[in-house]
Amino acid sequence: MERIQRLVGIGARRAHRVTPIAAAGIAAGGCTGPLSVLDPAGPAAESILTLMAVLLALSILSFVVIFGLFLLAWRRRRVRAPSLRLFLVGGGLVFPLVLLSVATVYAVVLGERITGAREVPALRVEAQARQWRWEFTRQGAGGSVTRADVLDIPAGRSVEVFVTSADVIHSFWVPRLGGKIDAIPGSRNRILLHADVPGRYGGVCAEFCGTGHSVMGFSVVAHDEAAWARLDGGASP
Questions:
Q1: Strands 180-183 and 189-194
Q2: How much is the pLDDT for 65?
Q3: Which residues 6+ apart lie within 8 Å of 20 measured at CB?
Q4: Torsional sign, CA 175, 45, 150, 209
Q5: 185: pLDDT confidence band, cut at 50, 70 and 90?
Q6: Cα torsion at 120, 121, 126, 130 (round to 10°)?
Q7: Whether 81 contacts 136, CB under 8 Å
Q8: Cβ(155)–Cβ(233) under 8 Å?
Q9: Helical pair 43-76 and 95-115, crossing angle rounded to 10 deg
Q10: What's the pLDDT score for residue 103?
């Protein structure tokens, strides 16, 4: 019995040392992979990550300042009443106005890059979602080309994707290349994709659309110039 207790104690101590390491490994593992928003591969995804970092920094700053004012009020309560002007004007007007102004400026500047409203796309693709797959249609040198669950694009160029649905609402999302946009029956929503380097990028349906939702994934394959010329029949996109 004593031997069992010693073994249990040793196991508990080792588990106590390993658990933080394992937790850190799991957390770090969630930051990588084909669907990681923390590993951008295009200007839109990079801008989204930058905006997220800015908003996170502003929220941390807001928490520190507000909690600091709370501690200041609690400490000075024993000596003298805190200044109402400090709390009302500084904490309630000036501070949030500065934070919201910075957030708004960043959102407007980065939003232009995310949407790519002024960019001229090198290729236009029609993406139609249905339960539970994607169909991508583009115009090639030999006519219309349609592929299921694979979107071919040229690397280093902007591609305009018009997203729609044949049945229910789906959502088009390639985390490493940009934001997501809904696929709505009877509507064509636009999103711009740009892959900096050739490669395969994972995409998913980000809107629950039925029993097959979990398997409704697709791939975006970004080709280099030579591979794209061969794929497109020797014609430039």
A1: unpaired
A2: 82
A3: none
A4: positive
A5: very high
A6: -100
A7: no
A8: no
A9: 170
A10: 87
By the 8 A CB rule, do 210 and 132 touch? yes
Report residue 231's pLDDT band, with 50, 70 and 90 as the boundaries: confident
pTM of the model: 0.74
Give me the amino acid identity at 36: S
Q: Out of 16-20, 119-123, 127-131, 193-197, which region has the weakest mean confidence (pLDDT)?
A: 16-20
On the question of pLDDT at 24 being above 70, the answer is no
CA–CA gap between residue 237 and residue 231 (Å, rounded)? 10
Q: Which residues contact 5 (CB under 8 A, 6 or more apart)?
A: none
- Helix, strand counts (H, E) of the chain: 5, 10
Residues 6+ away with beta carbon under 8 Å from 184: 164, 165, 169
Residue with tokens 């905006």: 51
Residue 27 CB partners (closer than 8 Å, separation 6+): none
CA dist 185 to 17, 73, 170, 188, 212, Å?
Answer: 53, 55, 9, 8, 18
The pLDDT assigned to 227 comes to 92
Task: Calculate the alpha carbon distances from 178 to 64, 160, 215, 216 in Å.
Answer: 31, 12, 21, 18
Q: Render 93-155 in DSSP notation, one character per residue.
A: IIHHHHHHHHHHHHHHHHHHHHHTTT---SEEEEEEEETTEEEEEEEETTEEEEEESEEEEET
What angle is formed at CA 115 by the lines to CA 222 and CA 224, rounded to 5 degrees?
15
**E strand spans, the chain:** 123-130, 133-140, 143-148, 150-154, 158-165, 170-173, 180-183, 189-194, 199-205, 217-223
